[in-house]
């Protein structure tokens, strides 16, 4: 069996890390449609050119390189190369570079695929403008209204950022790929969490992407003098939120699963003065699980508990559901293929959910799609000290190679889109 070359993988990941690298904090600043992002996309097209791949950039900014026949559905290897501010060098990039290495390895071993292999660097995955633009465009999850309204936290509009990058946002709606043009979709990614590293496990086979609900919440009490208001006569909004925070473990234990997560991410006290009892507290709740029914149970429980606390502490409770994203389940047949190849290679592995969002979630239910992880040291990601050992990068790329060759070489059937993945 051909083997990937870790020296080339290391070289390419290091090369990409220089686009947007900041000497001061050692972080990568390669946000979607920035100059650094577009320079990295140009670099990738140069690599495709060197390998003799047909290549281009679609209306959404996805960079696509193709190796193999033009008239058959493609085996797609995809991830992203944009970053969060002060990000690391592996997040997303490993999956794209590993795709390059798969093509290189096949070419140098004289292996011509029966089905084309496409390597795609999706556009704007990290959500600078509030979505995963490239994957949404490819799977038909874009609307003109959203494109024209989307803006980043500084008020920069997506349409203007795309124009500055030489892209007409209207053409993003033409990036849609019909399901019959994709034979299978695979994404290799660093875990971005501590589980594989802590358990000394090589591969995480992703069963699905957790669904997410997000609330903006408000508890309203009464602002009062911190010195003169007796403790038993206060309507302290912050104390109500703290009481709810203490209830989160119980809610998950009684209503959730081992995959459940509930997080209070932001808190704002008003009036926010040291000598004043907080009369209002605004906070977010984000809940996750791989089962949408469990998500509903968790959200109902949060609402009941907050309402009860508000009544008990003489507060008013308000909330607004900002978003509800259903879980996305990976194709079981592709998961079985990844597991079989992992066993053949002798790697340790576990079946696990992804609590973080990834490009693959938009492809699940659209085409045969699956994902697998390699460990992140200490679980650190979205930070300059993000690290994955080169040996783990090599194992992940080798597993990707073997899965792709199984899917692209020969006329055998691919795993069918399961009822669970298609939403039937």
UniProtKB/TrEMBL annotation:
Q: InterPro entries, per this entry?
A: Amidase_Cbmase, Bact_exopeptidase_dim_dom, Peptidase_M20
CDD domains documented for this protein: M20_bAS
- Annotated keywords: Hydrolase
Domain of life, per UniProt, equals Bacteria
Q: Is Hydrolase among this UniProt entry's keywords?
A: yes
Q: Which Gene3D superfamilies match?
A: 3.30.70.360, Zn peptidases
Q: Give the Gene Ontology MF terms in alphabetical order.
A: hydrolase activity
Tell me the PANTHER family matching this sequence: ALLANTOATE AMIDOHYDROLASE, ALLANTOATE DEIMINASE-RELATED
Q: Which family does it belong to?
A: Belongs to the peptidase M20 family.
Q: What is the protein named?
A: Zn-dependent hydrolase
The organism is: Novosphingobium mangrovi (ex Huang et al. 2023)
